[in-house]
């Protein structure tokens, strides 16, 4: 077998057929639901597994074992391992805080002070706040999804709408947060200050965020609301979530937040007699097992992405975009299309930014696009893609935590669509030298 370094350095010339595994996944995942009318029928893991085998069967220049080694290197990427650990920690936190009564008390407290007509927009704003402070959309979804589900039960609102509001809010902070990995990647690769990139981004997404609040309010207001029970809550049981909020505000690391939140949830549960010490291990096991599927999906997606790169899929995307770029506005659209296509191929906006960044920087220099604008475009378009693809980590984790499917949630993802509208408008009215 050839040396692993040589395998990882190898990349075929541009080849659109290298993208076949992604098309296979989409056909299986979406097509099965359209044909049968049941979007819950096709297991997401199975669709990814079939797509991975398609990728492994491509490129006869390498043996099956060599391609497995390349795929395994993608699974071992630091971003993928980090994501999986966050998933597992989030699962444990969610299970323990729910058993401790934190979800019920937090929901009842929120519904007792927030007008019911504003419950769904409130979920969106909570998602914006937490993700902006925490810097991770998946962590935000893990914290808020159980609350959204319980609000849906208590108010009668469509659960997909409530979860959609959370995902929209999570994408807001993922795009803007100073400590988000996408922000760091975009700023470092384009060579600008974080504050400059934040200001450029904020101008683009603020109208989208305001419009999202208005839409969620319009579609949720006027619904009859009858509480299923008395809105009783215990302030002590709300402490774990308040800890997450405050810690995120002060920029505490997401691992420390979820780990500390779990410990506090255990103490609260024991203090309020919600469970006994003998139940703790069972609860953590339940939380871990609930996130196994999404962790496996993240690993499979990374394997597919690495093989697509080796087989020339990313090269085809790069060359396709580069050959169609021209002018100041055209250059900006080129940067956007580049990272958007990379995101569709990798299902990871951070990886998409890293892959697209060198060519984006070259396009920016050629057409005199400022570094802060280039960084902003990379982050914004990648967030648009990540918020809309049904096989992205955000939608998959939201689905796993709520018992829904990504395709049921997607009709309520207004924010990514509005963000796309705003960034396109922003480019069209831009003038060279800004």
What key attributes describe this structure?
434 residues, 22 helices, mainly alpha, globular
> Helicity level, as a percent range?
over 70%
Provide the β-strand percentage band: under 5%
Radius of gyration based on Cα positions: 22 Å
Mean pLDDT: 82
Helix/sheet category? mainly alpha
C-alpha termini separation: 53 Å
As for the number of domains, it is 1
Q: Globular, elongated, flat, extended or rod-shaped: what is the shape? A: globular
Largest sheet report: none
Number of helices: 22
Task: Provide the succession of SSEs.
Answer: HHHHHHHHHHHHHHHHHHHHHH
Number of strands: 0
Unreliable spans are none
Q: What does this protein look like?
A:
It is a single chain. The protein is an all-alpha fold and 434 residues long. It has one domain (77-434). It is built from 22 helices and no strands. The longest helix is centred in the middle third of the chain and has 27 residues, at 194-220. It is globular and about 65 Å long. The mean pLDDT is 82.
Short description:
The chain is mainly α.
Itemize the secondary structure elements and their pairings.
Blueprint: H1 4-9, H2 20-36, H3 44-57, H4 64-75, H5 78-99, H6 102-113, H7 119-134, H8 137-155, H9 159-176, H10 181-190, H11 194-220, H12 235-249, H13 254-271, H14 280-289, H15 292-310, H16 313-322, H17 328-346, H18 349-366, H19 371-386, H20 393-402, H21 406-409, H22 414-428
Helix pairs in contact: 2-3, 3-15, 4-15, 5-8, 5-13, 5-14, 5-15, 6-8, 6-12, 7-8, 7-9, 7-11, 7-12, 8-9, 8-20, 9-11, 9-19, 9-20, 10-18, 10-19, 11-19, 11-22, 12-13, 16-17, 17-18, 17-19, 18-19, 19-22
